[in-house]
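can u do me a favor
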């Protein structure tokens, strides 16, 4: 089944939410502060066929980085969105996306629902999600982000470990006093890296 063929009809019979607080292996420092754990809201949609689809709400605990935050994601999903999804039938995942398009904001919460319905349809079609979405690439380029490090040498060492592990794109957080020298050191060590 490709996106160009008639997709499977699914009726959502159940929706579940999980709130997790995942400790980070390494603290992540940015100009907004240091994060040591990442809240995650997981959405599970179950269809009458028995298939399940999963999506992730990626908002932080507080609205320091975006206007959304994890407790708001939970409230949006639990009180507003999921009651309108359970019991409804969908011919295509885009129908769920369109259902909430007029609602302002809450993009991360809506994205969690969107991810879950696309995953559910892919599983119902017995296909990997990438295939169901129509990709022809055998793999995606992996990227990694680094927080503000103590010095340029530490950052270069960490970027080197990431490159060795196969990461092809690197994002580096900077702030005044931890900016140009840090980026120059990484660029000198890895002149062709997507930075």
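np, heres the sequence
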């Amino acid at each position: 089944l490709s996106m160009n063929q008639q997709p499977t009809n699914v009726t959502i019979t159940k929706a579940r939410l999980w709130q997790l607080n995942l400790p980070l292996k390494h603290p992540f420092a940015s100009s907004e502060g240091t994060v040591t754990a990442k809240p995650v809201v997981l959405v599970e949609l179950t269809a009458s066929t028995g298939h399940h689809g999963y999506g992730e709400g990626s908002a932080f605990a507080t609205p320091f980085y975006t206007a959304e935050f994890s407790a708001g994601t939970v409230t949006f999903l639990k009180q507003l969105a999921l009651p309108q999804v359970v019991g409804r039938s969908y011919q295509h995942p885009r129908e769920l996306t369109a259902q909430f398009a007029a609602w302002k904001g809450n993009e991360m919460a809506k994205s969690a629902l969107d991810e879950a319905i696309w995953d559910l349809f892919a599983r119902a079609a017995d296909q990997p999600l990438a295939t169901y979405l129509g990709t022809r690439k055998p793999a995606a380029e992996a990227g990694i982000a680094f927080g503000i490090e103590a010095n340029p040498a530490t950052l270069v060492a960490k970027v080197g470990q990431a490159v060795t592990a196969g990461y092809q794109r690197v994002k580096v957080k900077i702030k005044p006093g931890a900016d140009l020298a840090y980026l120059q050191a990484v660029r000198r060590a890895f002149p062709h890296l997507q930075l």
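The radius of gyration is 20 Å. hope that helps!!
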